[in-house]
């Protein structure tokens, strides 16, 4: 029997791990293997209600462990996760720990496993922004350095890892499990009533609108940059209604800096963070997306929606070279120019290699083959 622990801690992790759990079950059945899968939710962030909704929509099993860590400073949060997760490892003694992405749960649980000599698989390995001021970049680099199996989403990731001295035998180019989830649920998302709920649809015709998501500290944690960005978005909203799901961090800072009047000057539809299917529905029908998220760059590429990334760099360069993504930073003039260009440009893009809905199947087959040795 093979025992595998999967770790999730934040919303993007759910979409990345769901197809892997399903594919491992299917691969084990095909090969007459007995695989026990244990799901650990660190509770790093997002409300219990939102987590429950995501698990339900993605078909994820109820977590075997919920560590209920909650928010906190990076050191505090990472330390609390390590303390709690170590107890799980000692109780379960797994053959493998699977971590995804680049959140604090990723590096914390990978460190715990390696200190107990338990192999680690990192899904979404090798992505690099080369911006060491991003906490996520530190998490990515350190997790990759200690992982035994590194599963990459794009070919450039392998070059990054090789350049850091990672043994090429540990690296497997498999594709993107987040896209597996998107392709699986895209049709179901089309049936969601969110467009009607937000009055974005009239007589089966969808009104043109854009989507904005903001949560990066560089964009929302200081009053002046946030005010400039919101003022710019208010100006853009005169040409295109903007749907703005307010991340808890962003909402708190808008209220803290008394910036809600800036939004009242524009044509915004302010909503709470949405469940997975509703947000995919919103993205699929949007005219364009402005975001500082990593995963949205990938989803927009597959959906064929122009995405203006409100950052100076991206760890997902293939979304620019082959997809629909454009880096615009947070300079208002650059954003306005890119916005106007996007409204008048045909964004066809192409689907990157292995972003075909079968990344998790490749991962499952590799892991079960490797763990048999």
In short:
The chain has 373 residues and is α/β, with parallel strands linked by helices. Helices cover 49% and strands 17% of the residues. The protein has helices spanning 11-30, 48-58, 74-92, 104-115, 135-146, 155-163, 177-190, 194-197, 217-220, 223-236, 248-256, 260-264, 276-285, 295-303, 318-321, 332-343, 359-372; strands at residues 2-8, 35-41, 65-66, 96-100, 120-125, 149-152, 171-173, 201-202, 205-206, 209-213, 241-245, 268-271, 288-291, 307-309, 325-327.
Verbal overview:
It is a single chain. The chain has 373 residues and is an alpha/beta fold. It has 17 helices and 15 strands. The chain has helices spanning 11-30, 48-58, 74-92, 104-115, 135-146, 155-163, 177-190, 194-197, 217-220, 223-236, 248-256, 260-264, 276-285, 295-303, 318-321, 332-343, 359-372, and strands at 2-8, 35-41, 65-66, 96-100, 120-125, 149-152, 171-173, 201-202, 205-206, 209-213, 241-245, 268-271, 288-291, 307-309, 325-327. Strands 3-2-1-4-5-6-7 form a seven-stranded parallel beta sheet, sandwiched between helices. Helix 1 packs parallel to helix 2. The longest helix has 20 residues, at 11-30. The protein is globular. The protein starts with a strand and ends with a helix. The mean pLDDT is 94.
């Amino acid at each position: 029997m093979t025992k595998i622990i999967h770790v999730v801690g934040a919303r993007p992790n759910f979409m990345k791990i769901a197809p892997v759990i399903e594919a491992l079950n299917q691969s084990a059945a095909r090969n007459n293997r007995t695989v026990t899968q244990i799901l650990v939710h660190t509770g790093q962030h997002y409300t219990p209600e939102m987590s429950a909704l995501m698990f339900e929509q993605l078909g994820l099993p109820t977590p075997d462990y919920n560590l209920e860590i909650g928010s906190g400073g990076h050191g505090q949060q990472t330390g609390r996760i390590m303390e709690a997760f170590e107890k799980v490892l000692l109780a379960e003694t797994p053959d493998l720990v699977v971590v995804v992405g680049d959140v604090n749960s990723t590096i914390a649980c990978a460190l715990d496993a390696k200190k107990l000599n338990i192999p680690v698989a990192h899904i979404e390995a090798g992505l690099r922004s080369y911006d060491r001021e991003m906490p996520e970049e530190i998490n990515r680099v350190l997790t990759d350095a200690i992982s035994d199996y590194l599963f990459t989403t794009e070919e450039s990731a392998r070059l990054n890892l090789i350049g850091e001295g990672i043994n090429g035998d540990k690296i497997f180019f498999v594709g993107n499990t987040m896209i597996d989830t998107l392709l699986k649920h895209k049709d179901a998302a089309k049936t969601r009533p969110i467009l009607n709920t937000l009055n974005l649809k009239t007589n089966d015709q969808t009104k043109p609108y854009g989507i904005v998501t903001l949560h990066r500290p560089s964009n929302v944690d200081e009053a002046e940059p946030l005010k400039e960005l919101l003022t710019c978005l208010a100006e853009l909203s005169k040409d295109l209604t903007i749907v703005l799901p307010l991340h808890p961090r962003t909402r708190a800072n808008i209220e803290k800096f008394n910036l809600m009047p800036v939004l009242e000057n524009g044509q915004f539809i302010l909503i709470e963070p949405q469940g997975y299917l509703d947000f995919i529905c919103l993205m699929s029908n949007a005219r364009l997306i402005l975001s500082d998220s990593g995963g949205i760059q990938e989803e927009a590429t597959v959906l064929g929606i122009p995405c203006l990334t409100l950052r100076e760099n991206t760890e997902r360069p293939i979304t620019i070279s082959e997809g629909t993504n454009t880096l615009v930073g947070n300079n208002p003039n650059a954003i306005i120019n890119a916005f106007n260009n996007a409204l008048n440009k045909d964004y066809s893009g192409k689907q990157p290699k292995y972003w075909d809905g079968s990344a998790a199947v490749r991962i499952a087959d590799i892991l079960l083959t490797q763990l048999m040795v």
